[in-house]
């Protein structure tokens, strides 16, 4: 059995046990042939956030995928939908619609250092006039112009 953990705590299992709890050998199990290897497993229920989402009345497995979208990218295969701008220096770099209808928008404007003892703040850097983003499938957008800030 091969397991892989994805973001949002999802666990994906390939070659799962059969209904009876025994995993039978197949053509892909050449290293186990001749040894009469049998796998036994217990039943479990995986609980977690973001595993599935309701899409037009049907429960669908969430996917960690950002797709091309006009002026950026969109992640729409999960409980929340997120739109990402194609430029880090835009009014709203991310726009998230939650499953309960709330909308969150924001971005980065500067990096600041604050001395809590004195209360003084120093701006270390601000976002450049143009800091384009690049979609790197399946699940990343990288904003780089060598030094976007």
Brief write-up:
The chain is mostly beta strands and 149 residues long. It has no helices and 15 strands. Strands 7-8-9-10-11 form a five-stranded antiparallel beta sheet, with no helix packed on it. It has a two-stranded antiparallel ribbon with strand order 1-2.
Specify the overall morphology. extended
Individual helix count: 0
- How many distinct beta strands? 15
Unreliable spans are: 1-35
Structural class comes to mainly beta
Number of domains: 2
**Helical percentage:** under 10%
Give the radius of gyration: 23 Å
Order of SSEs: EEEEEEEEEEEEEEE
Report the sheet with the most strands, covering strand number, pairing sense and barrel closure.
5 strands, antiparallel
Largest sheet, spatial ordering of strands: 7-8-9-10-11
What is the percentage of strand-forming residues?
A: 35-45%
Overall mean confidence score, pLDDT = 76
Distance between the termini: 45 Å
Descriptive account of the structure:
The protein is mainly beta. It has 2 domains: 39 residues, no CATH class; 81 residues, no CATH class. The protein contains no helices and 15 strands. The strands form 6 sheets. It has a 5-stranded antiparallel sheet with strand order 7-8-9-10-11, with no helix packed on it. Strands 1-2 form a two-stranded antiparallel sheet. Strand 12 and strand 13 form a beta hairpin. The chain is extended, with a radius of gyration of 23 Å. It starts with a strand and ends in a 6-residue tail after the last strand. The N terminus is likely disordered.
